[in-house]
Structures are given as structure tokens and as C-alpha cells.
């Protein structure tokens, strides 16, 4: 039809203009054109003529630079933020950064006071179970405010925190039992996924937004570690300086510095990640390239050590715990390597190195599962053994399928999108497992 031909001609002119922009590759133009066509289709669907729909769609997309900015936000797994992202006026005007800083500081103060009251009013075990409830709801509130979530999403965010508060404080945990410790460890893990729901603005079904949250988590851990280390050093130097003057300020540290430092570090680290994400490349994926080969060497050395051990039953319990932590580190390395990779690039040496890492971790996980099952057969189930066994099974599924997809990718039989999609869609399994550990496990073992 004539109108369709005119529309194609207009899109062709737009495409030619965009292609002349040096920073935009052919593959990126293809995707932006798809977005433009979706806009045109939506507009014609509500009654606009094709030429009118095209003009409105182009107007919505804006200039090439604004298209680049939007494209960087929609495809944060590439280096667009570093290469093409140009300064823009903050949304809502120039006062928004100041307003955001005020909101962050207010949330820090409220979270710190809540933590301080909790530390003063509750016993040690109760505090350990509830510490994540003193801080993480305010971090989720920050993202809910920043993403301007709907009232429905905001209400949905409150439900998990309320349920966690009920479970963690109503269950009759034995103060000397294992289930209380297990619940205290898994509560922040489960609630972190609620923070993730706020971070993605309720778009949890989006693979891209899940990967954004994975990337944020790695960056947040790096910033939190730096803030914690810096705060520890600064506090130690300050206390030492006052000690030389015979002035005791340890009560100030315990009553004020600790709650404000903990709450402040959690929320400020998130704010720093948000503030710098449009300026420099992520840190966590860069560190991945350094630690991946070192981790492979460590895993292979452990496999050799396991092979020389006469019986898997004799493997030390503490070693099994450490190996669980190492496998979690391997998972982190895998996720952040994926987040930093150009999805359109061909398989390279580092991709093959990642496959070796996965296979090594998979072999270690199998050995650990054999050791755990042998110990359970010999001594029976306990809460700790059940949690460890379940976690290793969850990791086993992820590593096994990751190895299959990774092997297909380096052989050229699968696209990188399959590898990435598997990881982003498997992430909720960890949150579901942590929630099940808190809710289901304690009653099974009589809260002991």
C-alpha cells in the first residue's frame, strides 16, 4: 500500500541519519529501529495515520543523543554509559540530585535510629534475626521513591517485610538451637530480593532488569566493603587518638557510630552506585577477570586434595562450609562476567576460561554432595546438614545447566542470550530457597 511505502521511506531516512552517527553500530541501529516500529505500531493502533504515527514516534524518541541515552539505560550490559552517554538535565529539573540526597540522608537517619532502638531493646539472638528488618525496608523505600513505583507495587513491597517480621518474631526458636542462626543468616538474603523488586520498579519479569539488579548487587558489595573498611580504620584511629588523651569514647562508638555507620553504609553504598552508574564502568565485572583464573587454580588444587583423601566422610565439616562459600563466590564471578560481556561478540579465550571455572566448580560441588550424603547416611539429618545439602543442590542445577549452555556457546551452537537468560531466570530460585529455609525448616526441626 502507498501509506506503507511512505512509512518505509520515512523510516529509511531516519535509519540513514542514525547510521551516520559514528557511535552507533549497525546492530544497535537495528534494535532502535525495532523500538521505533513498535512505537509506530502502537500509535497506528489507536487511530493515527502512519505518517502522523511516525512523526510522533520520532518526537518521542528525541534526537540521536537522547536515543543513545535511552538505549544505554535499556541496554546497561554494554559499555554505552562509558562511550556515548552524554550529560543530561536531571529528571524533574536541577534540584532533583539535591532532593535525592536529602531523601537518602533522611532514610539513613531513620534506619539508624530504628537500628539503635532495636539494639538497645532486644536480646542478642532476637537482634540477629531482625537486623535486616531494621535497615533493608528503608533501602527498598529509597528505590521505590526513586523508581516512582505505583501504589500497588509499593503495597506489594511491604508484604514480604511484614511476613518476615511475623515469622522471625513469632516462631519459638530455641536460643541454643541451630534454626535461629539459620533464620538469621537467610533473612537478609530473602529480603534482599524484596529490595530487588523495588530496584527494578516492579518489572521483575524483565530479564534485562534482573541483570541490572545482579550488576547493582556486585557494585553495592564493592562499595559497602570499601565504606566498611574505611569506617573501621577511621573509627580505630579516632578511638586510639582519644585514648592517648585519657578520654573514653567507646560508648559513643557503640551507641551512635555503630548504628549510624551500619545503616549509613548500606543505604549510602546503594546511592553511590546509582550516582556513578552513568559515569564509569562497573567495578565488579572488572575484578572478575582478575579472580577467575585464580579461583580456577584454587578449585583444581582442592580437587587434587579431595582425590588424595581416603574417605569423603572424613572431610572436615568446616571445610564443607568453606567450600559452600567458595561456590557462592564462583557464582558471583560467573554472573558478573556475564553482565560485563558484549552479547554480540564472538566467543573468546575468557569465555573458555569461564567454562573451565564452571566445570571445576561443578566437580567440587559433586564431591561435596557425596561427602554430605555420606555424612547424613552415617549420622542422620540435622538442620545445618539439610540447609547445606539443599543449597548445594540448588547450585548443582545452576552449574550443570550453565556448563551445558557455556559449552554450546563456545562451540558456536548457541547464542550468548541463552547463557544470560538462564542466569537471570534462575536468580529467583535463590530467594525462594532462602524464604523456604526461614519458613519451612524451623518447624520441621522443632525450632531447635
UniProtKB/TrEMBL annotation:
<feature type="transmembrane region" description="Helical">
    <location>
        <begin position="427"/>
        <end position="445"/>
    </location>
</feature>
<keyword id="KW-0812">Transmembrane</keyword>
<keyword id="KW-1133">Transmembrane helix</keyword>
<keyword id="KW-0472">Membrane</keyword>
<feature type="transmembrane region" description="Helical">
    <location>
        <begin position="352"/>
        <end position="374"/>
    </location>
</feature>
<feature type="transmembrane region" description="Helical">
    <location>
        <begin position="220"/>
        <end position="241"/>
    </location>
</feature>
<feature type="transmembrane region" description="Helical">
    <location>
        <begin position="183"/>
        <end position="200"/>
    </location>
</feature>
<feature type="transmembrane region" description="Helical">
    <location>
        <begin position="386"/>
        <end position="407"/>
    </location>
</feature>
<feature type="transmembrane region" description="Helical">
    <location>
        <begin position="101"/>
        <end position="121"/>
    </location>
</feature>
<dbReference type="InterPro" id="IPR047928">
    <property type="entry name" value="Perm_prefix_1"/>
</dbReference>
<feature type="transmembrane region" description="Helical">
    <location>
        <begin position="286"/>
        <end position="307"/>
    </location>
</feature>
<feature type="transmembrane region" description="Helical">
    <location>
        <begin position="127"/>
        <end position="145"/>
    </location>
</feature>
<feature type="transmembrane region" description="Helical">
    <location>
        <begin position="319"/>
        <end position="340"/>
    </location>
</feature>
<feature type="transmembrane region" description="Helical">
    <location>
        <begin position="152"/>
        <end position="171"/>
    </location>
</feature>
<protein>
    <submittedName>
        <fullName>Permease prefix domain 1-containing protein</fullName>
    </submittedName>
</protein>
<feature type="transmembrane region" description="Helical">
    <location>
        <begin position="256"/>
        <end position="274"/>
    </location>
</feature>
